[in-house]
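SAMPLE LOG
Freezer: B-3
Tube label: C17
Construct: single chain, 167 aa
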Amino acid sequence: MARIWIKYFLMFIFVVLIQVLILNQLQISGYLNPYFYVLFILLLPVSTPRYLVLLLAFISGFSIDFFTDTPGLHAAATTMIGYLRTPVLYLVSGRGSDMAEYPTLKNNGLRWFLVYSVLLVLIHHFFLFYMEVFSFTGFFRTLIRVIFSTILSVFVIVLSQFLIFRD
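STRUCTURE (predicted):
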């Protein structure tokens, strides 16, 4: 059991470093912002207690906030997906009947993982970007940013499942 948590600790360090050192430097036309660090919350074991998921989600978001000088935006968005993760898992899996312990692409298949990750990343981005502008004045501009960033983020997350997190 300790070995599994060491693996997740190393994954946390890896995704935060990739996000901060590489992906935060990419911002294409102000519409495409890939957020890879949410993968840490997506890949937590299904049996992880909800309070621990919320705590880890807050810590991962706060880590990004610390490095990007966005006071609480990422912490709030990741805590939101941490809270909604269990209902989304049940929505995608149908009450856990075919749900594996580890919600990865390898364990659940491409279609399942795409639906799961798109839903949570879309929620994250919607919450993050609308909290960032804190206005509905540019609603459609922000919505386009949410959609394009979700597509890019999910692409990077799925690609990582094929290249890095294969087990």
